[in-house]
Records
---
Amino acid sequence: MSANEHTLIRIPDTLPTSQRSRRPLSPTQWSLISIGSITLLWWAITASGLVPALFLPPPGDVLAKFGTLVSNGYMDATLQQHLWASLQRIVLALLAAVAVGIPLGIAIGTYPRVRHLLDPLIEFYRPLPPLAYLPLIVIWFGIGELSKVLLIFLAILAPVLIATAHGVGSVSTVRQQAALSLGASRGQLLRYVILPGALPDILTGIRIGLGAGWSTLVAAELIAATQGLGLMIQSAAQFLVTDVVVLGIIVIALVAFALELGLRRLQRRLTPWHGQTH
Amino acid sequence: MSLLQAHNLGVTYPGQASPALQHVSLQLGEGDLVVALGPSGCGKSTLLGVLAGFIAPSEGSVSFDGQPVTAPGVERAVVFQHDALLPWLNVADNVAFGLKLQGVDKARRQQVVADTLQLVGLADVGRKYTWQLSGGMRQRVGIARAIASQSKILLMDEPFGALDAFTREQMQQLLLSVWQHAGRGIFLITHDIEEALFLATELVLMSPGPGRIVQRLRPGFSQRYRDGEDVRAIKSDPDFIALREQLLRSLFAQRQAEAA
């Protein structure tokens, strides 16, 4: 065998092609397939009678419960009122986290000293489970709305801070130098070059932060709440009302997903250039 | 009269034994097109950084119009190889960026942008975004932005280095016509010998270790292009070829001397 034969890359005579030309499925269709399959599996398990309804209520029961909760409510409040209470807390916490996180993130990304100062603090609290410092927050700030919003705020803040600092720090040097040579002042550089350049990262931070915010909702509503989806789920769990638990989970998931889709759309509209070769 | 004067520049980066730049002096006047030619590591980017005010020299000084240069300034616009445009602005807003920073009113900005885009042959893409353009068109936008600003000279950091050979040739000719029209001094760095010879009114050949100027030429081919001579005729002229080979030999000789 000659040495040349080893260097040849064999290319098959016929490339594998699909037999029938099928229209490829759209992303939405793929998503519907996964949601449909899991619902079908859920229904099949409950319909087979292998699992008691206490452990896993059938989809039909949960749907019926939805109707009851919308009209009659649970724990002295309708589903809408629970949802509204939770949404208010999340949105308030998000606005506060953006208002604090973006300026602070810019400072961290711009000045190494600020980063060295704040980095240990952020990394200290960030990995803590909210339930771990919940007692302290209650002791310090009481059992009012402030403590609930504060807990969610802290969860959203860290991702927003870190993403903003990273975004600001990774704005192309060449782009900044070019702007300076066109006469940009420090303020103009920040406003016209650094902030728009960091925007994709900031929006990603907000998306991740919002997810973290939802995940602390139940913990936040442990604090003497009278309304809220987290409260609804906890109370139902204590009384083994599994269908309300499942319904609460689904409502949180749907609302969180809707917000996420909205943010993704915002990101595409505001930063269509992101990820393009330039 | 020379606008930009660099006197006996030296730059040593912290932790480096050999200076990145040593004993470099040069002058740039209104109608000049000074090209620094050299291999990577010869200090030409450092030199441009010092002239732009991005890098503080360890020795020597730079002055513009008699004033010492210590920071980037609006009179010295820099054109980079890539990545310097703002992708969230359309082409027209990118070109207007320098004027906007200076607080020039909108009507005036629009006038300048229209004229400048016309000059670089991009009159109909003002509303497009920079990431929707080809590499050559993006460089035209970069040049237009520097011209439209209130700069008195242009500092160009390998502006055509990322372009294919064909586009590069077109851009060289475009640069000469823009230079003629805008009447501004240009300092350009490149590692492309033909490009340097074709464009330069003054060519400085640089060599690494330490980065320094080893030869100065006044090729004069850009003047012949301005006088209407065909670009292929110029580049295949025996004088052009002889100079190109001489520079190439000189570069190789430097490299061998270094290795020895």
---
Amino acid sequence: MNKVLMQGNKVIGEAAIRAGCRFYAGYPITPQNELPEYMAENLRKVAGGVFIQSESEIAAIHMVAGASAAGARSMTSSSSPGISLKQEGISSLAACELPAVIVNMMRGGPGLGNICPSQGDYFQATRGGGHGDYRTIVFGPATAQELADLTMDAFDLADEYRTPVMILADGMMGQMMEPVVFKAAKPRIYPESYVMKGAGTGKSKIIRGLILDPLDMEEHNWTLDRKYQVISGKETRHEQYKTEDAELILVAYGTGARIAKGAIKRLRETGLRIGLFRPITLWPFPTNELRDLAKKIENFLVFEMSTGQMVEDVRLALQGRARIGFHGRPGGVVPTPVELANVVLRKYDRKEGLTDYY
Amino acid sequence: MLVKTILCGFGGQGVLMMGYTLAHGAMNAGYHVTYLPSYGAEVRGGTANCTVAVSDDEIASPIASAPDHIVALNTPSLYTFQNRVAPGGALFLNSSIIAVEPSRRDVRVFKIPSSEMAEKLGNPRTANTVMMGAFLKITGLVPPDIYLRGMETVMGSKKKSVIEINRRAFAAGYEFLEKAE
Amino acid sequence: MKKVFGRPQSMKNNIFHYCAGCGHSIAHRLIAEVIDELGIRGITIGVPPAGCAVLAYNYFDIDMIEAQHGRGPAMATGIKRVLPDRVVFSYQGDGDLAAIGIAESFHAANRGENITVVFMNNAVYGMTGGQMAPTSIMGQKTTTSPMGRNNVLDGYPIKVSEIFSLLPGTAYIERCAVNSPANILKTRKAIRKAFQYQIDGHGFSLVEILSPCPTNWKMTPIESCRWIDEVMCKPFPLGVIKDLPAEAGDEQKKGDKRHAG
């Protein structure tokens, strides 16, 4: 497959179709409209491909649940306010152990906010978002290429663990075009036993999240938790950039990590030894890998396009073993690498500036 | 090397197409490239703009707070973006429409009567391609043959005659500044 | 000895948890009988609601997947679109369909999804303890309309079937009741017709069933059955509200006759 220049939202659509996604339901919201539009045009051309423009975000996620239960690789997408509406369904997917891929092209919030790129939904995505004891696997892609690769991986992991997987990107990732090469999709491996196709001549099946007996419900919670433990142990992904000799580590993800890389390149030119730790899975968070870095590095600076959400995971990972500073630009502001470089410079010169505030 | 260009004009002048073909050409020339359109409520006002970043290394931000070049097809776009261009950068103006002088004295200014040239060629909608000819002549960002091949891919679904007139528009823009200089 | 009455094959051998005099158990049985009769047990998928019938999958011996409150038609849409050759139905109460899930129901109907909705209307929220439903009738006393439903405060009972019948996407809508043997037989016929229409690919069908809730109506089962006839049927008259396939069939017959004549 050749390199193609493609917009982020469409990259996800194309990657999903190549990964065998056969059901998409969604509701228009900026800045991700090109994704449902792409599916409307292209998923319907694929044998068995279903696209539905649903009446609401809520309907979309429940259509996805139905399609998933019926055995189709299924996806929905939205942006922040719409993802809030989908939480009922995501909780239900987790409870019923149904695979699905949910895309969030984050925009400024809370409330209606604006349509500019933001990273304010980190808590919502990584803490479960809906009600009850559950987690969703969350990918934080930083390039169009990663949008393609991680979308495909998201379908594989959703099937492997029978759990909803979220792609957490932002309006800039969705709107931006970059060159992409689509990798070959892996064959789908999943246990067909749970799929609802009618009982045939055999025993009938039930898919449900309602478990009235508290002891049974507790057992279900622990079963889910054991699955999340396995995922935590096996599925963390991250990237380290120039950390070998670093005196200070920037921690950032997605668009934030792109800006951070740009800042690091500038700072390195002036001789400052700065590196980047970029979580690719936001849940499970690459806790151990980050903690290992703290064995030799004392200073960490978290940069997010929010008022500070991932910084809490960094604190949990480092457990007081290093100084942690924070720089945030919430509300849809995308700072320049120059601005971030200046912030780092200030903090780097006065190490005390990195002292955390907790 | 990192070169950022903002391309801007009225909706319908082919501003996004201009950026898309430029980004395509840069990709084919082996560069890292990002293309970022303005979107949402921003594009409802009738003006359009996009930013193309070209680099031989990974690109951090696709946004240009201080672009190296501005390609402006109308006057409001010039007003909006002329103060952002980096000192020593360049303004490429469609002088058929932009009658005002830019306020900047620390940048190079290239005036191309691209709308008139396009009209003379027989298709006023190729003014954007005329601009790209002039732009690539001066910046050398992408070799003309690679750009034109990219343009053909991008316009693949269009009629042969449309592609042909765009080739001529590109050549006209390319030669215009050659003559002027 | 010849067996004349037994448990339908599509029912599990479980004892209903429903209150004495409740209409759910009757409706369940009717659906199971129809599934048996049509021989579609192996290809039918049911979507039970939140509410009293949330445990319907304990009684139906068919594939069932629980929906969140009100989302049955969205979920049924997802299933049916992926598996168009299966028979898919949602089973919904009045709160589920006409309040929290009105959007999902309305739009599934409007898209003409080829599914069947069994709509249990008992004019009250049963599971949660007798609160006012969107179909509670004027003046009806519930725990959240203690002085009786008042249009100024509470609005009016929603006539789901009549409203849905206006949507071009709906094929068949009938309102029935399960308060007398005669009405029960009519209900069974309606359910059968709705499933048959789905099998024949006619599109969205809805059977509204007026169903007694003696516990929350604070009546005996017999009083409840009478209340349906005497009170509830006024805002919710029984009968076929829309039957496009039959109308088309009539046109066809007329046409044939004309042709023959």
---
Amino acid sequence: MKSSWKTFKAHPMSLVFFILVCAGVILTVGILFLVVAFVLIRGVPYLTPDLFALEYTSENCSMLPAIVSTIEMVGISLLVAVPLGVFCAIYLVEYAGKGNKLVKLIRVTTETLSGIPSIVYGLFGMLLFVRALGWGYSLLAGSFTVAIMILPLIIRSTEEALKAVDDSYREGSFGLGAGKLRTVFVIVLPSAMNGILAGIILAIGRVIGETAALMYTAGTVAAYPKSVFDSSRTLSLHMYSLSREGMHMNEAAATGVVLLIVVFLLNSFASFVAKKLKSKT
Amino acid sequence: MTKKLFAEKFMKAVFLICACVSIIAVAIICFFMFVRGIPAMREIGFVEFLFGEKWRPTAQIPKFGILPMIMGSIYVTAGAIIIGVPIGLLTAIFLAKFCPKKLYKLLMPPINLMAGIPSIIYGFFGMVVLVPLTRTLFGGDGNSILTASLLLGIMILPTIVGLSESALKAVPESYYEGAVALGATHERAVATVIFPAAKSGIMAAVILGIGRAIGETMAVIMVAGNQPRMPKGILKGVRTLTSNIVTEMGYAEGLHYEALIATAVVLFVFILILNVLFSIVSNKAAPISFKRKKVKKEEA
């Protein structure tokens, strides 16, 4: 498959192309390392215990409240989006007939949802949850907004996981006298679990990284949320607020390190789960 | 038995209702945006709103022209495409056709990670590294179209790489074999046969990249300067549609507030157009992968 130096001598343009391609990949990986290395170098020295103090004050800039509200937000948004998304995928894969017009419409709208910029979601969340429903800037409003955002991701990954389940499983189950519902819940869903889980983990990553959609739905209060109707900022928003103020760039960088580590862990976990799925089939 | 039957019917209905959630979501989003946005546009005047060059929402006689922001979004996105697409495509070609398997396993996780890094981190990187860099290299104050384009170019890389790599891999092996049999070198076969064959898939990747660039908010706001005026040069600051919404939403009231929603409507329409383009292009790309499946089956 590879060209030798001899062929390169005869075809200099091939050599040029080869060099260009190599340069491209080096540049891409290089940029990534630059971003990661920079955030680490800039942030790690400031990763002091003060940053994890129990209470936030404008002096210590503790990110602990932000971490807590991030976890709560992830929890609530998954609680909303996972059942909806998984059930939607079950309908699409297990129940809907081929060439169903409704299925086509669902596909188109899901694709549309995944293309909408996060700021439009933020604006929509502000109009519906914050103002029309009167929840105010709150954890709940933010969670519902990001729940809609991650819905297409969960639908798509679940759909693919369900499709990957071999039809013989279903046939075996039907053959033993199980109904459709039982087949879905007892046979198909457990076999597709890894794929679904990988999708959910990626969705968690999206929630944690989200900023624009939360600014005007969850608000930017830096304290612990006492209830779901309290405003509280997530880790990403915390980092944004710190870096905007200009006074706390070091703390912002340190928060960036924590974010990066979380995203990295989630990503490796997702690919680990997905790999397990592959080795199984 | 009847109880079981009832459960079956009931759950089927539940699944169906859940399946319709994305339809409902899109409908509600459209409803809220258009119901609030269109009247504002009408009040300002469609032409005045879309082609007005002045955005002075808090002046005595307020002006709501978003042409500067539309142009800003277009410039910044174009810049991102100019920077991101060549690098991304070359990377995809390497991964699909040049990469040894071991190296591939080593390279894939970081590229996947790149897609998962939050935009706020890219924004921070841009603010602290790219802004001073362009300031010292090219002058100006660093918050500029150029910086934003650079940063967005980086951010769309994983999208471009991922999609175009799978498009390249979907080209049937027989294309390559034919080219090599005719005496082409590996590079020539890839560049002149496989690459053109994957054209539609690559176009789809670029369109998705455009969508990401145009919709990006937080990273852009941190490096673009955000001055609401017509772009005057690539070293001057600019405001995009997205950053217009974020910067002023916090304090906007009355018509100003509605005008921001109308800005989001314009953005929304841009995205819808891109979506339609995407589905047209990726439908075109589908037959190739279909062919590949057929070939695979024959092999088996």
---
Amino acid sequence: MAAVAIEQLGKRFGTTTVLDGVDLAIPDGAFAVLVGPSGCGKSTLLRLIAGLEQPTSGRIRFGERDVTDLQPRERDIAMVFQSYALYPHLTVRGNLGFGLMLKKVPKLEIAERVAEASRMLGLDGLLDRMPKELSGGQRQRVAMGRAIVRRPGLFLFDEPLSNLDAALRGQVRVEIRKLHEQLGTTSIYVTHDQVEAMTLADVMFVLNRGKVEQAGAPLAVYERPKTRFVAGFLGSPSMNFLDGTLVSERGAWFVDVAGQRVPIDAGAFTKLVHGDAVTLGVRPHDAILRPAESGALELVLTFVEQLGGETYVHGSILGSPFVVRVEPTVSVQAGATVHVTFPSERVHLFARTTGNSLRC
Amino acid sequence: MLDGFSARPGGGWCRHCVLALLGVLLLLGFSTSAWARPVRLWHAYRGEEQRALEEVIATTRVGAVDVLAIPSDAYAAKLAAAIPLGEGPDLFIDAHERLGDYVRQDLVGELAFDPTAYVPAAVSGVTIDGRTYGLPLSRKCVALYVNRALVARSPEWLEDLAPNLRQPLPPGHVLLAYENISAYYHAPWLAAFGGRFLQNGDSFGFVGEAAERSLLLAKSWLDQGWVLGHADGALVTQFFRAGRAAYAISGPWLAGDLHAEGVPYDVVPLPKLRATGLVMRPLLTIEAVMASPNGARSSAALALALELAGADAARVRMVRAHVVSARSDVVPLDDPQLQGFQAAADLAEPMPTSAAMRAVWEPSEKALRKVLNGTAEVRPALLEAERRFRDVRRPGPPPASRTGLLMVVGMILVFAAFSLVKRAREPEFRARLRASVPAYRYLAHAVCALGVLVFAPLCAGAVIAFTSGRPGASEYVGVANFREILSARGGPLFASGSFYFVLAVTVAWTLLNVAFHLGIGLTLGVLLSRPLLRLKAVYRVLLILPWAVPSYVTALAWKGMFHRQFGALTALFLQAKHWGIDVEPIDWFARFSTAFTANLATNVWLGFPFMMVVTISAVTSLPSEVLEAAEVDGATRWQRFTKIILPLLRPSMVPAVALGAVWTFNMFNVVFLVSGGEPDGETDVLVSEAYRWAFTRQAQYGYAAAYSVLIFALLFASTRLAARLTGKVVA
């Protein structure tokens, strides 16, 4: 088991820069999640950690050990692939024991460890089946089992749940977290699904365009996104954004959104300059529908999405799309015009030029 | 449809054109069949001889002559195919020794002529059972070429060849060059001891004291380095033309290859042997103009034949092509060469016309080669040759009663009819059949094509296997052919040439080849699939090239490389010697192991690209994540290859291996062209053995067809078995 430290890691394929000076520090025993949209470089980063690709620059350390130039098999890692990558010609038992067999572990011990892993994952009755005779969820478990059996210093997961249906995904997600509690092995998990990221991570790294945009505990990142990208990427439905201008009037600060003034809590922000172009961000569940009152913005409803436990009303404010979460008891109709306000402490502000948060 | 056609403007005009065309064609057909149809003449001449013939034809008084030159390889087969259909020539020019076969197959008609104008030997050559079947044109035989630069005077005795030299031969020169591994060239040596290849009554003559002494003499000349070893025609030409041989024994064809300004030479009759006082009489070939049965009834054809064999035409041939005439009334030109050939021809003995003569060559040559190679003693080799001759000449199996056949066929038919009727009465089957009609319609053309091109020949072959299948006699003989094959024709079961021996060689040949193909193909395929390999496309093209070259070209090229004296391998060995590595050049085709290795090397070269291509495509389609998973799981490169790649390639490789095995099992080109079955027929595989029975051993088609049926059965059974076994494993 080891902490993972990555310093200034860069990777180029030809002229395309995929990773651009990435720094990561993952404490020993933590469950780290790399999250980001497609093409942000998260899978490449994982493959670099695994040793399946060679970095163009930078170093990778597992604890005290510099593994940058080591072969994958010398790194003491186990990886769960998106496609599971089971050995199609081996039974489940053969798949689970493959890594141990290569290490020439005594047969008896292999059998014990395979039995233990299959008990943990509920694979007991499947040990003599071939991979093609298994369902998607079972294959996924075998892939996990193959990693567990090896007792590596580091687990790597490359979007392991993306081929499962929604219900199974939720279930396996919980199991993965439980397994981690049980084994306590440092894990790095790549996903584009922010729900997985939020629920699994001890520490989360949001990647965008080959860089780490923000790192930290999932809730902290969610609550205090450092950039407009992170704010928009985390949360579902994603944060609403309205472009406006900062206005200071008699010691009070507003954002002027096309003539309508939205008050903000000036104490929560820094670098407020009168007249600056900003983007105002509000999460759907932080906005409140009201009868008409001053300071409220008009929302023209286009679509009402009733999910049972909650309802999302979709519409636009001054041309920008806007979503509000309301209680299912609230009755609104598409085509109506309603008014929206938001508590000033729940409002996020980003500089429009850099996209950086103005929160202090 | 019809209305549409006639309503179209110009439709009537079209019809008139067609009618006019038909009329012209009819007229043409009528004219060719009823009026002066040209006399059709076939020949296989090339070069000066062809020009001489054309000159004669140009001045003929007979009228129109339709001359067609046929490649000599296909000549006899074309005649045999065309004449029975009435499509063949009226007249054709061929060597007299084929007359025996032609008479038996009714390909020639009797041609009566006045024999006094011709040399008696020529007349006797075209006479079979008292009837003459051709007009002799020319006589050809081998003579002694004497290199005047090295030899002081032409020898009268064989023993004088060396004493007559001007001075001892420098290194790199030989005393005598002739095709010493060919029975045809050994005939004069045999004749010098009073022997001949075929005795009266068609018994084998290359056995007994004369044969033994002739072989010992030839071998002693070879062992003393007086004779060029393992020589074929090209080598003899090369040596004599380069002035590196003092004497050569060859026919008029060698003169054609010598430049006028090159080596000065004389042509004289072959010498006598002092030990016996007998002349080394060569075999004489008489070229004659023969008539097909139709041609023999045509007066124009007969007139043309007489003209071709006349004195004027003989002079044209003599002047133009330096051919020795078969006429006794044509005085040779004042040309020492021609006189030399004429003198040699006067001494020569006409080749027997009996069909038995063709059974002589193969056994005799095998014995000759074995003795000259030193791999066999003289007497056993000759006795073996005689046994082989008798083996080939054995009478065909007796006709069998057809009762058994009729019963079996009848039972099969009754059973088939019964089950058909039974099926047809099931309503479900009828409904399914009706539903499948469109499918049958789509399949029809493919079924027809396959039926005509594959199944019909296959069935015809199978039917022939149950007949004696010899020219002129093809009655039903039951399973006699199979019985003879499987009992090794009464000989020892594992003697060279027996079915079991050839089968064992074939199986070894197949297994070794496929193992090498697979090993090399897999290795290269995996190496060439590495994504980061530079110039991958170039290597791939280079390595696929052996496959792209026609296999017979490759086979001939490799045969050249394995040549005892001039092959690339010998050159390599000599070079190695230069560097201090002591390796002797190998006579590759003298021993089974080396001949087999030569075949194997050639076929491995030809075969590995297929496996390589299959491997590349299979490796490319392997899931890369599985290989990465193995890498992460701790597998080394070798472990990834053996534990992941190989098992995953297996489903793609199994059919490729099955296919490769069948191809190799039936690989005729390489075996036939590289080793040619040498030594002693031991490297022959089943297909080349079947070929020999059909085409070089008295046309025993029934026997050869039975071989083919056995090959088919073996391959069918073994592929079914292999499919079942591997199917289980893969599943």
